[in-house]
Design a protein that fits this description.
- By secondary structure, the protein is of the alpha+beta class.
- It is built from 2 helices and 9 strands; from the N terminus they run ααβββββββββ.
- It has one domain.
- It is globular.
- The protein starts with a helix and ends with a strand.
Length: 163
């Protein structure tokens, strides 16, 4: 009976160890951003700060291998300092390597340059990411962007390409 109970407990713990969702991706990227960026506190009023989107489901037979999330955050990547160094960042979290390992931040993904000052919405699935935001128009003053922008990006290997 003890072996059966121990087996059940180990199975539950093992199953829960591989449960990963948008909230976990957000926490992982928050920790990552605190290492690679500055001025994150300035972006806390951004309602989409650390917003995670599950962009690709993983293989259920392989404990979620291939599962991919994109997490948005604002901050001064690399701590450049100065005016206009805080900007939008998109970070990929992926379940790669061993099936028994947790998903990790993968830096090899490339995003195109986007004319984006503030994110107003983000969604995605099946390798397609949709981004809505605000950028500076030709007559806008500093700190007052008003031009609405929208982008659709498709994941192609390690590149996100504009559609």
């Amino acid at each position: 009976m003890k072996k059966l109970l121990l087996g059940a407990v180990v199975s539950v713990v093992a199953f829960n160890a591989f449960a990963f969702d948008e909230r976990d991706a957000s926490k992982l990227v928050r920790n990552y951003s605190e290492i690679v960026a500055c001025q994150l506190d300035d972006a806390e009023d951004q309602k989409n700060q650390y917003k995670a989107i599950k962009l690709q489901s993983g293989d259920p037979g392989m404990k979620g291998m291939g599962e991919l999330y994109v997490v948005f955050w604002e901050g001064d990547f690399g701590c450049s300092g100065g005016n206009a160094t805080v900007g939008p960042n998109f970070t990929v979290v992926e379940h790669v390597g061993l099936a028994s390992a947790n998903p990790i931040v993968v830096e090899g993904y490339k995003f195109p340059d986007l004319d984006l000052v503030k994110l107003t919405g983000i969604s995605g699935e099946n390798g397609v990411l949709k981004i809505q935001g605000i950028a500076y128009g030709s007559n806008d003053q500093q700190h007052s962007p008003s031009k609405k922008v929208s982008y659709t990006l498709k994941l192609d290997g390690y590149d996100f390409k504009k559609l």
